[in-house]
């Protein structure tokens, strides 16, 4: 009998202002689920916390084997603490509760299978370092476009940015702007503010959608070529940017691999994992990016990344790209 897994995707199933990141997470998870013989049911909250609450409560009522959730703004934790625990095991993806919140959930009776998140502190730092490397001008004003004030991924990316920006004596962070991960919000913010800072040289962004909004505003103002713009996600809009880091859309598949290992009682070294999955977008990832929206990496055998494999592969971008290249070249 197949393992029953419900994933509450906080994003949209189709085009939206925050970009296609959550769609990519779903497509890759769908391919992984087929390889792992997991019955995966994906439900979309459309960035609506009221709908998300309804979806979580409905899923708990159905009692699947596992419920995968994304604890943005601690919304999931609040919902769960107000609800009754049952035999369903919880798995947190990309944003997990704090250690104190996890203990409160356990005390409430919830079974927590584990979590996997990306190292957002490192990517915030790496993005800023790469933007400095690609820029010819390190004197002037820097803007930061942030997702929100409380989601761990947003907070950690900002911390990474500041760890580099605060050491730049001639580059000053003049504006930290919360654009709610949205392209149109970022567009209007930058359109209104960029003209006030004639020495603006860089815009660091916590995701590609906001970075693309900033680039669009700068283009309208006729100053795009003077300013380095960087983001995170590897969205299609990344082609409009000077630099984009990504790779973490694959962690939904990693969550299913970890669940597979748990179900089959295979060795799983860490219940809660933080993976440095990020890299800057370049030519070696073009094939990967081409396949994600079209077939969700069906050419990759995700069983090779489980502990059931004779020589399990580490879940890294290089190994996934290599597996994709081997399979597609043999077809």
Automatic annotation (TrEMBL):
Keywords: Signal. It comes from Pseudoalteromonas fenneropenaei. It is found in: Cell envelope. SUPFAM superfamilies: Periplasmic binding protein-like I. This is Substrate-binding domain-containing protein. Residues 18-238 form the Periplasmic binding protein domain. Belongs to the bacterial solute-binding protein 2 family. The keyword Signal applies. The keyword Membrane does not apply. InterPro entries: Peripla_BP_I, SBP_2_dom. Pfam families: Peripla_BP_4.
């Amino acid at each position: 009998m197949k393992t029953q897994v419900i994933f509450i995707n906080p994003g949209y199933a189709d085009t939206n202002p925050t970009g296609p990141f959550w769609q990519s997470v779903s497509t890759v998870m769908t391919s992984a689920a087929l390889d792992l013989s997991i019955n995966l049911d994906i439900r979309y909250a459309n960035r609506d916390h009221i709908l998300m609450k309804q979806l979580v409560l409905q899923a708990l009522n159905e009692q699947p084997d596992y419920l995968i959730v994304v604890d943005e703004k601690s919304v999931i934790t609040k919902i769960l603490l107000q609800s009754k625990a049952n035999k369903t095991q919880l798995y947190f993806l990309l944003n997990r509760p704090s250690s104190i919140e996890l203990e409160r959930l356990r005390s409430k009776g919830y079974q927590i299978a584990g979590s996997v998140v990306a190292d957002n502190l490192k990517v915030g730092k790496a993005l800023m370092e790469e933007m400095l490397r690609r820029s010819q001008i390190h004197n002037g004003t820097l803007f930061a476009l942030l997702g929100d004030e409380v989601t761990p991924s947003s907070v950690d990316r900002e911390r990474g940015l500041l760890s580099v920006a605060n050491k730049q004596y001639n580059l000053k962070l003049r504006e930290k702007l919360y654009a709610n991960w949205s392209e149109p919000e970022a567009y209007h913010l930058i359109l209104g503010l960029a003209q006030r800072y004639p020495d603006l040289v860089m815009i660091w962004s916590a995701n590609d959608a906001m970075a693309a909004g900033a680039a669009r505003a700068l283009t309208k103002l006729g100053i795009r070529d003077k300013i380095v713009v960087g983001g995170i996600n590897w969205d299609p809009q990344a082609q409009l940017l000077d630099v984009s880091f990504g790779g973490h859309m694959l962690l939904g598949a990693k969550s299913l691999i970890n669940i597979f290992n748990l179900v089959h009682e295979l060795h799983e070294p860490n219940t809660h994992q933080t993976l440095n999955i990020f890299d800057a977008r370049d030519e070696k990832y073009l094939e990967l990016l081409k396949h994600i929206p079209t077939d969700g990496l069906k050419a990759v055998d995700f069983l090779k990344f489980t502990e059931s494999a004779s020589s399990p592969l580490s879940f890294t971008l290089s190994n996934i790209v290599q597996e994709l290249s081997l399979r597609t070249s043999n077809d």
